[in-house]
Amino acid sequence: MAVYAGKVVIVTGASQGIGKALSLALAPQRPRLVLAARDTEALARVARDCEALGAEALVVGCDVSDEAACRALAAAAATRFQAIDVLVNNAGMGMLARFEDVTDLSQYERLMRVNYLGSVYPTFYALPHLKRSRGQIVAISSLAGLTGVPYRSAYCATKHAQMGFFDSLRIELRQSGVSVSVIAPYFVQSEIRRRSPGPDGRTVPASPLKEGELMSAEECARLIVGAMEKRKRILVMTLKGKLGRWAGLAFPSLVDHLAAEAVRKGR
To answer: Is the pTM here over 0.70, yes or no?
Structure first.
């Protein structure tokens, strides 16, 4: 059974990485996809690929850090399709820097606007529609929302905020029929690190991780679709991630050491 056949699904950050892979993974179920990102040319290519797989697709240019743009995104989806059934808050950006080396603190505000408020704004404007459809909110977060990761303090802070927001919202919506799922991938092959700013705000020239050994965006998308179909509360990907989550409660110093080693080894 195609769970999302005919459903209106908004995916932010759909032009690349996990957002693109997720849109393509959902497309064979024949949903009505609303693909949002700043790069409308890339979105148009994703839309064509999704339509070739059976989906209907609407492209909406949207900077999720802009509240007005997020209001317009929800309005465009509702106007075109008369409903919103699923909102996937996927858009995000990273940052790679040792805190004491940072020379441009405005990057911390920028990340908070994109990764945290960039989930709050779309959720606020889609929520009335989601309550009518008894729909779903999906937040693509990170294991960095559950634990600290060295050289990623800005990113971790935004993902902790995102986790807290959606955990709180889930409780508020418990009688509404709207489910809230939080997805916590481990490191995934994605453009987010290759385009991450460094200490001075300029893009880091190359990812420090061994990209070839990381989970593919396509595999990540497959796992996300499975969690969405079951309306899971939280999906922690990989055994390492699951063990680390619980070990952090009993052996926090060990987890700190393992996190530092994982970054040092690039995996």
So the answer is: yes
Known catalytic membership, residue 121: no
User: Which pLDDT value is given to residue 173?
Assistant: 98
Domains of the chain, residue spans: 8-265
Specify the pLDDT at position 212.
52
Mean pLDDT by 10 residues, the chain (267 residues): 94 97 98 98 98 98 98 98 98 91 92 97 98 98 86 94 97 97 84 61 57 80 97 85 57 61 56
CATH class of 8-265: alpha beta
Token code pair at residue 131: 């309550």
Question: According to the 3-state scheme, what is the secondary structure of the chain?
Answer: CCCCCCCEEEEECCCCHHHHHHHHHHHHHCCEEEEEECCHHHHHHHHHHHHHCCCEEEEEECCCCCHHHHHHHHHHHHHHHCCCCEEEECCCCCCCECHHHCCCCHHHHHHHHHHHHHHHHHHHHHHHHHHHHCCEEEEECCHHHCCCCCCEHHHHHHHHHHHHHHHHHHHHCCCCCCEEEEEECCCECCHHHHCCECCCCCECCCCCCCHHHCECHHHHHHHHHHHHHCCCCEEECCHHHHHHHHHHHHCHHHHHHHHHHHHHHCC
Pick the catalytic residue from 4, 116, 155, 186: 155
Write down the pLDDT at residue 213. 64
